[in-house]
Amino acid sequence: MENEREVAEIEATLIIAKNAHRAACAQVIEDITTSPYVFVFGEILALPNIVELESIPELRPHFELLKIFCYGTLSDYRRQKAALHLPDLKPAQERKLTMLSLVSLSLSSKILRYDDLLRELNISNVRDLEDLIIDSIYTGLIRGVLDQSERRLEVTFARSRDVQPTQIGSMLNLLKNWKSNCTRVLEMIDAQIQYAQRCGTKHRNHCQDIESRAEAIRIDLLAKAEEDAARAQTAGGHGGFGSDMDMIAQQQMLLAAHMAHRH
Asked: What are the angstrom distances between the C-alpha of 1 and each of 37, 44, 92?
């Protein structure tokens, strides 16, 4: 629901900003950076009417402030305030920029110690820090676990911020490398599949060959048994025939054992 509210407010702001000029655009920037629902500003920063403020000396500080809300942190604001003549922050703006600063820190490290956060976010006590973290979690900017005994925040998720134009090249390179790695993995998987298929075919052929040989031996033994039986009847003796039949039975048993062993 929060994301739906954010999208709706951004869309409404874009409509207003497209028809605004000069001081009215500066007011749009103040409104959007004060809103408790909007935490991405790239589309607004890219609007021609907003970009125009960069070339107007008395309104440029508002444009620079929007850039800090897009990409920067509270430390950036404090460091650049005097040089860029940035407007003073309203309490709601300072709160939001502090939360965005926490997001940036969460994107850079999954374990954030309270002492580091107190310093980076310019917060004086742990109670206020934990309130800020809880608000950020409730807003959906981050997810994590507060470890009060170890005095640290364990981050499990952090929402992405606006992408600076200078970061696009490196992001494209990362995506190209990822694509190449995926291609190599797929090729390895395909090679393994083909190898398994070849092994399966070889095994089936081997089994068929064994069965064919076993069948040939069985037929040969039966033929020999019939031939020996016929000779025994012709000779009129029974002892030799019994011995031959015992030998054939033993051969058949050996053949069956050999077949079972091969399988």
From this structure: 11, 22, 21
Full-model pTM? 0.69
In degrees and rounded to multiples of 5, residue 176 shows phi and psi of: -65, -45
- Count Cα atoms within 13 angstroms, Cβ side, for 241: 13
Taking 90 as the threshold, does the pLDDT of residue 221 lie above it? no
| Stretch 152-163: mean pLDDT | 94
Beta bridge partners of 152: 113, 147
Instruction: Of 139, 3, 27, 22, give the one whose Cα is nearest residue 13.
Output: 27
Task: Please give the biggest Cα pair distance in the chain.
Answer: 131
Distance CA 99, CA 128 (A): 12
- On the question of pLDDT at 242 being above 80, the answer is no
- What's the alpha-carbon Rg for the chain, to the nearest Å? 40
Q: In degrees rounded to 5, what are phi and psi of residue 113?
A: -80, 145
**How many CB atoms within 10 Å of residue 105?**
19
Q: pLDDT tens, 100-144?
A: 999 999 999 999 999 999 999 999 999 999 999 999 999 999 999
Residue linked to tokens 């599949």: 193
Beta strands in the chain (DSSP E): 111-113, 142-147, 152-158
